Amino acid sequence: MAIVQVTIVPLGTESPSVGAYVASIVHVLQEAKESIRYQLTPMSTIIEGELDDLLAVVRRMHEVPFSHGAMRVSTSITIDDRRDKKGTMEQKMRSVEEKLR
């Protein structure tokens, strides 16, 4: 299982606000047929699942701003793909919280 952080920024839009773009991108996550889980944050979206599934979903997410009139889109992806044990978003957070005690 992999965890992907993705930030999608439409460029050259009429307004500095991107909330409508983000909402449209979240629809891709909500409607995904792949077995994924996601967490929206103020600056990015975290998705967990099988890497091939995540990359397919990210590809569809990247296309959304274009379909809403953006002429350029910058997408940043960070992949955490650990093979020695199953990692989840919750497990990673618990690990840090335990070390804070």
Automatic annotation (TrEMBL):
Organism: Paenibacillus sacheonensis
SUPFAM superfamilies per record: MTH1187/YkoF-like
GO cellular component labels: cytosol
InterPro entries according to UniProt: MTH1187/YkoF-like, Thiamine_BP, UPF0045_domain
Similarity section: Belongs to the UPF0045 family.
Top-level taxon: Bacteria
Name assigned to this protein: MTH1187 family thiamine-binding protein
Domain Thiamine-binding protein: 4-97
